[in-house]
Amino acid sequence: MRYTRRAVATWRVREASPADADAIRACMLEILAETGGQKGPGFGAPLWEWQYARGLHPALVVVAEDGGRLLGYYHVPIVDLRVHDRPVLGAMVQDVATLAAYRGQGVFREMGACALDGMRRRGVGLIYTFPNHRSLPSFVRNHAYTVIARVPVRVRPLDVGAVLRTRLGSLGPILGAPATAAWRAVAVRTGGLAAGEEVVPLTTAGPDLETVARDFTSGVAAALDRTARYVAWRFLEKPAREYALWGLARGGELRAYVATRQAPLFGTTCAMVMDLGCRCGEDAALLRLLSVRLDAERAAGAALGVMMGLHPFLPQLAAAGFVRVPERFNPRPFNLLGKILAPGIPADVLTPAGWMITLADWDVM
Predict the structure, then answer these.
(1) Rounded to the nearest 10 degrees, what angle do helices 171-187 and 160-168 cross at?
(2) CA gap 352, 365 in Å, rounded
(3) DSSP per residue over 20-42, as a string?
(4) Are 333 and 130 in contact (CB under 8 A)?
(5) What is the 3-state secondary structure (H, E, C) of 163-220?
(6) What is the pLDDT of residue 172?
(7) Which among 59, 205, 290, 291 could disulfide-bond with 232, CB atoms 3.0 to 4.6 Å apart, if both were Cys?
(8) CATH homologous superfamily, domain 153-333
């Protein structure tokens, strides 16, 4: 189905085909250069193809065009969700934008309507997305998405001196060592590894990791299905190879895992906690794994540990020295929106307590 603006517009929207790939990437590069988008550095064909052509399901992509020139794009990866522990085909809306000259003409609204029709035809039951402040009103007003939550941001100082340097200049390093030691003494209440535990790099994703992830999501209403295949695609196959995936083993069995990467945020180098999980009853082991890995990230130059997400476990991060960032200091509000498409999906998936969400479920990082 094709959509056209009601007046005398010359543009139209449609679903993209593989032949549009080069033009989509060229349009994205133009918009990323204009907006300074966080995805800009390193963006190119390998990243786009990994994300949208080689995922677990082919992505739905909608484009707007005018006289053969693309002027906007709307990407919808199709994903596997678990809703109350049963499989549901889901979708995440991301990488959506319009060229500056065409904004304010309804292009974004019409791409969204075309995408919703495409998702319904594919059997999608539940959609989630994290729009920025510019596109959020269109999702709510034009397409009846629900704002589920402003997702909390938690940080753990790793090198207080490096953090203070962004505010105090040369005084930061002078105060840093004693301040870091004081923070650890007061705020970090996790000990070292327990007897028989070891931290191991995970270079493959196997059934043991899938079991850990399934345990961790079993207590929530909705979560992305972290199968071994998904974890391998998301963390081990991304072209930039920017993630570190680690596990905590005891007695020869995997008990917990964490995925991290370093990235600039809050004016300093941060260790982003991309994803995490543990077996039922192993919360303390997961906290120990996080502390060990964040100490290693500090040695590699990170000044802050950062965790954004929703899950009943996450308030326990206070024991590992994390504090919640007040919203007025949050550089990028992390709004989770959702929309139910299929009958029979319970409404609790549109409440904050119903979700497991981590940075792995978001696009930019």
Answers:
(1) 140
(2) 22
(3) GHHHHHHHHHHHHHHHT-TT-TT
(4) no
(5) HHHHHHCCHHHHHHHHHHHHHHHHHECCCCCCCCEEEEECCCCCHHHHHHHHHHHCCC
(6) 46
(7) 205
(8) Gcn5-related N-acetyltransferase (GNAT) (3.40.630.30)
Query: Tokens representing 150?
Result: 């402003």
User: Which residues make Cβ contacts (< 8 Å) with residue 182, sequence separation at least 6?
Assistant: none
Q: Which CATH superfamily is domain 3-148 in?
A: Gcn5-related N-acetyltransferase (GNAT) (3.40.630.30)
Domains 3-148 and 153-333 share a fold: yes
For residue 297, what is the DSSP state?
H
Amino acid at 139: F
Whole-model pTM?
A: 0.90
Q: What is the pLDDT of residue 167?
A: 55
* Intervals of the chain under pLDDT 50: 3-7, 168-172, 174-176
**Hunting for tokens 């300074």 — which residue is that?**
36
**Contacts for 325 with CB less than 8 Å, ≥ 6 apart:** 152, 153, 154, 155
Q: Coil, helix or strand for 53?
A: helix
φ, ψ of residue 137 in degrees (nearest 5): -60, -35
For the chain, what percent of residues have pLDDT higher than 70?
A: 90
Distance CA 180, CA 159 (A): 6
What are the domain boundaries of the chain?
3-148, 153-333
End-to-end CA distance of the chain: 33
Rounded-to-integer distance, Cα 132 and Cα 143, Å? 16
